[in-house]
Each structure stands twice: as structure tokens, then as C-alpha cells.
Amino acid sequence: MLAVDKLIKQYGDFTAVDTVSFAASKGGVFGLLGPNGAGKSTTINCISGLLPPTSGHISVDGADIVKDGKKAKRSLGIVPQELALYEDLPAIENLKYWGMAYGLRGAELDTRVAEVLDHIGLADRAKDLPKKFSGGMKRRLNFGCGIVHKPGVLLLDEPTVGVDPQSRQRLFEMVEAERDAGACVLYTTHYMEEAERLCDSLAIIDHGKLIASGTVTELKAQLSARDVLQLNGDFPDTGVGGLIDTLQGRGMHDLELISQADGALTLTLSSASQYLPEIFEGITAMGGSVSETSLRSPNLETLFLLLTGKELRE
Amino acid sequence: MSFLFASFRKDLSRWRQDPLAVLLWLGIPFLIGGIITAMVDGGGGAGPTGVLLIHDQDDSLLSGLVAGAYSQDQLGELIAVEQVSMEEGTRRINDGEASGFLVIPEGFSAAFLEGETATLTLKTNPAQTILPGIMEDVTEIILDLGFYVQAMFGPEIEQIQDAAAGTVPDDAFAAALAVQIQGKIDTVSPHLFPLSFDVQIIEPPPAEPQPDIALLFLPGIVMMALLFSAQGMSADYWKEREAGTLRRLVSTPGLLSRFVYGKALAAAVVVAMLGGITLALGFAYHDVDWNKFVPSMVWITISGVGLFAWFAALQMLFPSSKAANLLTTILLFPLLMMGGSFFPLEVLPDWIASIGRLSPNGFVVDRLSTEFTSANAWTFDARSWSIVLVMTVSGLAVCTWRLQTGFARR
After folding, report:
1. Are residues A145 and A285 located together in one domain of the fold?
2. Interface touch B248/A129, C-beta < 8 Å
3. Nearest CA in chain B to A79
4. How confident is the model at residue B183, as a pLDDT?
5. Which is the CATH superfamily of the domain at B50-160?
6. Hey, which residues 254-293 in chain B have their CB within 8 Å of chain A?
7. Confidence of residue B204 (pLDDT cuts 50, 70, 90)
8. Domain around A287
9. Which of B17, B245, B250, B258 is the best residue to mutate to test the A interface, defined by the most A CB atoms within 10 Å of its own CB?
10. Among A72-86, B68-82, B217-231, B334-348, the least confident range
């Protein structure tokens, strides 16, 4: 069980994580979503003991990471975003070393290392040096080093960045296996499709603040059934407000402007395809023009857009 | 404790994967040491360095004694005597193939016995200065000695000569001649060996054997291997940081201090191996007392780990690995220069040697030099050992402190 309560991390005047609270339970995957620089990695670093929180509490399996760090860390497994391996040490020795760092010894260590090698598909390359491995193999070994001690809480910090689709699929399976084995998994990503596939519950973070949280179903429900309509073209700044009012007056009661920037208008609206002729007509009437239109069904990406006014990958 | 062992085993295994670095740490001092030893040692034992050519036209007992005088005792280590013909001697001295050419003329023996003048001709090599000078001095001494012997025992020598020319002299002749010679010695001995004062011979205390110059280079060469390896291995903290393993380590319950000690233990093995090979070859070459080998090994291993720890601590103070490597490399060379690795402390100007002995490596080298050149067994000096131990422990403590205060977390 992982519990983060009113976590604040400041660097001078800059607040990287601002009063973030969430809880993740065993046997589930909790997703922490947000664009680059949102505060996900800082949160992970505070949880793993790399950074001391400015204030707030973090509890790992009931142990406070600051007050009882050694006990808390024994329950933690980390798979960092960047590879953290000894490239000049055979794969099996890497696993043994990290296992010993977590207190595994003797036969227990040997057994567990053999299990992990099998699990990550590197049993036949156990004695090879990681510097001879492909990128995907290194990622798997990196993952293996994080789970060698059977952690109760597993932190995965954007583990699929720069990973080919095949290795990504393998990583998903390994994460699911850990979850099924009863681990509490905290998974940070800025890929919504990953979050939708893996996570039971989610928290969306932006500018260091938690802006939404809940199960995937709960979060999607916040969107109702509204589509996301993106229009590219030429839109006079002064006319957009009037356009929205006009269109709402024509029966599009739940029409909402999400963003307007760089010749792009993003709107949400129920049954948007039915209203496209009226929308184009209104834009022409205000002196604008449309060069490209895209219509999307609601998903987590849409929710993020709705909450922050920007794309997740920005 | 077992994480310390894990850290030790991990680093040892990693160093084994990089034999080139280890060979370089050993190879550079060996190359420099080999050149230095060859320069100051000449590459072999001392043999005669000059050649005296002798053409003996007299071919008598006396001329043979003169020729033999040049190769007696220590003179024989300097001068090799060769009997040659007149033509060969002339040619070789003119070609500069010898230091001197001595011609003993025919009738030399007769002239000596009759007290007449005989001329010995010594032609020397103008391209040389010292050896021809020695040959001239020796010739003069032989001639002076001959003058006094002839003056005192001329008749007796003449009798021996006559007897040698005829039949074998009988015992009565030999006894009479011996009595005659002894009588002369008894007559002059009060003047030659006066007993008017008592000579008390006081044996000086056994002097410390003078070390050969090449031996003075040995501690510095050993230290060179230690410094290169210590500086090279210290960069490993930066390698670990850049590989992300230090960050991962901080998130484990493994203690950073044990990580540091494990690393130091692996460094100790590398240092002991490099130092041991260098020392063993040095001991064998310079014939140093092997009883000093084990204490020397312990001394350089502890010192090597201390130097490694301080290099690592320094590296961790810099903001980037490039800056850290560059600055520790720059620091390495003044340390080598002043600490007696390129030139022994004994031959450096006093003020540089004084500074050098205060440097950590100079301190270690100075102690090794003292022990290597001493005829006594290795002396346990508590103060020196304490200084080295404090240097090592404090270096490791600074490394741990740097890891705990942010270096590992970035």
C-alpha cells in the first residue's frame, strides 16, 4: 500500500509538487499522468527517498519514507526512466547485486535471480554483459533489477520511453504479472493509451498539482458523451466569443471552448457531427475559414485537454 | 556486511572486464622505471672499463711483474691488460681502441738491476681523460717502488737473477740469501716501522651500505603505479552516477558507507596487485631484503586506498565528470614530480624535497626509501602508520559524506 498525503516539494520559490495526495492499493496499477515537467518524476523521487519532501507524508507499506526510510525502502522497487545498470557486469551479477542491496542472501537470492531471469526472458543471456544487449533487452533487465526482491510497492517511471512496440508489449505483460502477484504498482506515463490499458485508477497532474483522480471509468464519466472537435484555419480573435454564444443559441447547449491558439480552435460538444454545417456557417459569417477538421470520441486525452486546455504530449 | 561484500565483488568483477586500464596503470610506470633504471644502472655489472695494451720487449721476470701490477686488486676492475705486438698496439692506440699503450724496452731488467736508466714508453688515448691519468699515476708508482727496491735489495736481486740463469740453487744459497735480506730489513725496520708510538686501531661502526642510485627510484616508480591506478579508479564514482546506478542505490536500503567500503576494498585488491608486481620485480632486481616485502605491500596497499579515496572525494566535488577528470589529472603530475616519482626525493633540491615529503604520495615514498636503503629490518613506526591510516579513513569518510549529501541523488 502506498499513501501520499499533501506532498509538497519546493526548490527555492519554485513549487514542483504542490499538495499532492493519492493512495494506491495492492494488486492494482495506479497511473500518474501528466505532460513532461508536470511533477511526476519529482513525486516518484520523493516516494523513493531520492528527494526529501518539503512537507507532507509518504507511507510505503505503513512505513514513513523519511522517518523509517530503511524499512520503507525494503518494500520499494524502482524501475527508473533512464537505465540504471552496470553495463560491464554480467546480467546475472547485476540482478544479484541489486538483490543483495535489498537484503537477499544465499539460496533465496539465487532462486529469485533465476526466476527473474526467466521472467524477463534473459535466462539464456544471463552471463552476457548488458553492453552487448539490444535496447529492449536492457529495458527488461532494468525492470528485473527493480523486482528482484519481490517489492510490495513497485514504482515505474515512464518505463516505455524510447522502447520499440515489441519490447513495450513485453513490459506491459511484466507489469501485469507483478500486479497479479499482489504488488502495488505506481506507473507514470504521458501516454494515455498505456494508462487506459494498464491502470485501474489514475491521477492527472499538471504544474505540480493533482487536477483529477479516480478510476478510468470515473474519469471518463466526467466527459459525459461530448466529442472533441478541432478546427484548423483562420479565426478572427474578436469573433470567437460571439460565435460560441450564437451556436449555443442554436441548440448546442453543451458547446464549450477548450482552447484557441495558433489558428486552431478546440471545442467539445455532444453529437458534434450533426452540428458541423451550422458551425462552418457561423465561422464563415464571422469572417473566418476552416482548412482542416478532426473529430474525436471522448477519452482520457480529451479529459486532460478539457482540464488543462493543452495536449498531454505538449 | 554482506552488502559491503556485494559492492566489493561487483567492482572487482567490473575491473576484471577492463584489463586494458589495469595494464596501462602498470605499463606506464614500468616503461618509465625501465628507462630510468637503464639510464642510471647501465644495464649490467661493472667490468673493466679501460684497456691497457702492453708490448713487453724485455720478456723478463721483472718486466712480467710490472705488467702484472696493472691488473692487481681493484685496479683490475678498472683496467684490462692485453699483451700485444708493437704493430697491433700502435694501430689500436691510434684508432682509439685502448686507453693506453705501454712499451717495456729490451734490457729493462738488466738496467734496473744495474741502476741504469731505462725508458718505459706510455702512449695514452687523448680522447679519454680519467683512465689514461690513472695509468700514468700507476706507472709512476711502480717506477718509484722499483727505485727503492733496487736501492735496498739490488745485490740480492742480482744474485737471484744469476742463480735463475744457471742451475737450481741449493738450500744453503737460499738460506744465506734469506738471512742477508732479513738482516737488511732488521736494520731499516726501526726507521720504517718505529715503535715509538702505540697505534690503536678502532674499527668504525659498520656503515650503512650505500644504495645504488636505481634503488632510490624504486619507491617512486611503485608510487607512480599507485597514483595512476588510484586516479583512474576514482573516476568510477562519476561513471556510476552517469549510469544511474548511484540514484538507484539511494532508493535501496543498502548503506552508502558499505558501498564506499566495498569499492575501497576492490581498489585495495587492484592496488595490491599492481604494487605487488612492481615491488616484487624491484626487490628481485635490486636485491632488497625479502623480509621487507610483506610490510612494504601492506604499506602501499593502505596508502593506495587512501590516495584512491581522496582522489574520489575530490572528483565528487566537481560539477562534471570532465572537469573532475581533468583537474585530478592535472593534480597528478605535480604530485608525481614533487613526491619523488620522476626524481628521487634524495636528489631533489632541499626545498622541493621538503614540500614533496609533505604531500601524501611523497610521505609514502619517503618512508619506503628509508626502509629499502636501510640495512636493518623494517621498523614499525606508529606515527607513520597512523598518518596513513588517518588519511585513508578520512578519505573514505569524505566519499560517504559526498554520496549522502547529494552526489548520488542527481
Report:
1. no
2. no
3. B248
4. 84
5. abc type-2 transporter like domain (3.40.1710.10)
6. 254
7. low
8. 224-297
9. B245
10. B68-82
Out of A197, A220, A243, pick the residue that ends a domain.
Answer: A220
Say if the ipTM goes beyond 0.90: no
A82–B253 CB contact, under 8 Å: no
Which residues, including other chains, have CB under 8 Å from residue A44's CB and lie 6 or more apart?
A32, A155, A157, A186, A188
Query: What's the CA gap between A141 and A121, in Å, rounded?
Result: 9
User: Rg of chain B over CA atoms, in angstroms?
Assistant: 34
Low-confidence ranges of chain A (pLDDT < 50): none
- Tell me which of A169, A194, A220 is where a domain ends: A220
Q: Which among A133, A148, A137, A221 is positioned nearest to A178, based on CA atoms?
A: A148
Q: Where in chain B is the domain with CATH 3.40.1710.10?
A: 50-160
Mutation target among A100, A110, A157 for the B interface, most CBs of B within 10 A? A100
pLDDT tops 70 at residue B196: no
Question: Grid coordinates in use for A182?
Answer: 499482489
Cα separations in angstroms, B3 against A50, A98, B247: 20, 9, 16
Contact A78 B17 (CB under 8 A): no
Per-residue pLDDT band at B201 (split at 50, 70, 90): low
Identify residues of A whose CB sits under 8 angstroms from chain B CBs: 48-51, 69-71, 73-74, 76, 78, 80, 82-90, 93, 96-98, 100-103, 105, 129, 145
